[in-house]
Amino acid sequence: MTNLWLDVVAVVDNSKGMTLDMLSGVAAVLASTFNVDTSIGIDLDNPRTTRLGLVTYNENATINADLNTYQSMYDVVSGIFDSLSALSSSRLSYLSNGLQTAADLLKNQSFGTLRDHYKKVVIVYAASYNGTGKLDPLPVAQTLKDDGVIIITVASVEHVRQELLNELAPIASPGFNFSIVTEGGNSTGIVQGALMQANCYCPNASVQYRESFVDKSSTPYGSCLHPINDSTSWKASQLSCRNHKAYLATEFTQHKHNFIVESVTSTTGFHPPLSYHIGLNQVLGKWVWDQPQGLPQIPLQSYSDWNPMFPIQSSSMNGVENFQNGQMTGWQNIDQLKVSTNYICESYACDTDNYCDANGNM
């Protein structure tokens, strides 16, 4: 949380359906979500900063703080508790108005600005779900998600109601639908985890390694894959990856291997039988995985996926490619200088450990 860099809008239900005790609870959870060391606002000397806006909604929506209002954690805490100290006089609660106001705020102050490359998050604290027709919140939520905004929903009621969780689930980005549990639990930690996950992404249209290739909303990992449709030798491929601050891809598990196969199968220029260089190579008689320049290569562990009859014992066949043999795709060692084929680069994701600028450079 110390290195978090996001643009976040909190959207809080303050209608009479949200009790005053629960509204105070939301204020406490929201204020404590951000670490005391989280850099709030804009710091020209530190790009790892988070801006927080606050919108309350009932029958209508109100901007209590835009994305430039809070410039410190003191501003966040005092501003949140001041804005969430009383309920509105309205019993009506239209989440669509709150979401639309958050969308307008991001459009005017985040998209198309110097922070355009910062991930954008909306956190909804809702006590009820209402609205049909023009007041249906789902189309607004879908537009936000289509624009790359992550939506976190938090059912904010005294006792968890499965009905409300079910209603909020389509509003949330997959896996980001939670509740405040007054009887215990760690609502703050859950939202913090969601924020850090939202901060993990791959720039420049690369493929983010994730739990499921088919489900783009599945849990992402901190690794970006770059299938390159350019037939070169293993050594030239390694140098090309390094020129782009990357390295030839690693396959530490069967899951990673299968994910890469699915990635290249979906990439223009990769045709069956599949063939592409990966980062496994032999150094001083030992098989090791390529790593970023300057870091030691990682020894081959227990997992391996050699094609039948491989590896071939040869002093010159020290590179490795994935090669499709029938329905299976596995490793086979090759001459690093003589065999040309496509290749897969890998790089670290942009996240709280790795800040990326507008061009995707760390």
Structure report:
Pfam families: Lectin_C, VWA. One of its GO terms (biological process) is innate immune response. InterPro entries: C-type_lectin-like (IPR001304), C-type_lectin-like/link_sf (IPR016186), CTDL_fold (IPR016187), VWF_A (IPR002035), vWFA_dom_sf (IPR036465). It comes from Caenorhabditis tropicalis. This is VWFA domain-containing protein. Helices cover 25% and strands 26% of the residues. With 362 residues, the chain is of the alpha/beta class. It folds into two domains: 193 residues, Rossmann fold (3-Layer(aba) Sandwich); 142 residues, Mannose-Binding Protein A, Chain A. Strands 7, 8, 9, 10, 11, 12, 13, 14 and 15 form a nine-stranded mixed sheet that branches. Strands 3-2-1-4-5-6 form a six-stranded mixed sheet, sandwiched between helices. The mean pLDDT is 94.
Class derived from helix and strand content = alpha/beta
Strand content: 25-35%
Structure summary, number of beta strands: 15
What form results from the Cα inertia axes?
elongated
**Estimated radius of gyration:** 24 Å
| Name of the CATH architecture of the largest domain | 3-Layer(aba) Sandwich
- Count of runs of 4 or more consecutive helical residues: 8
Low-confidence stretches: none
Q: What keywords describe this structure?
A:
362 residues; alpha/beta; Rossmann fold; Mannose-Binding Protein A, Chain A; nine-stranded mixed beta sheet; six-stranded mixed beta sheet; 8 helices; 15 strands
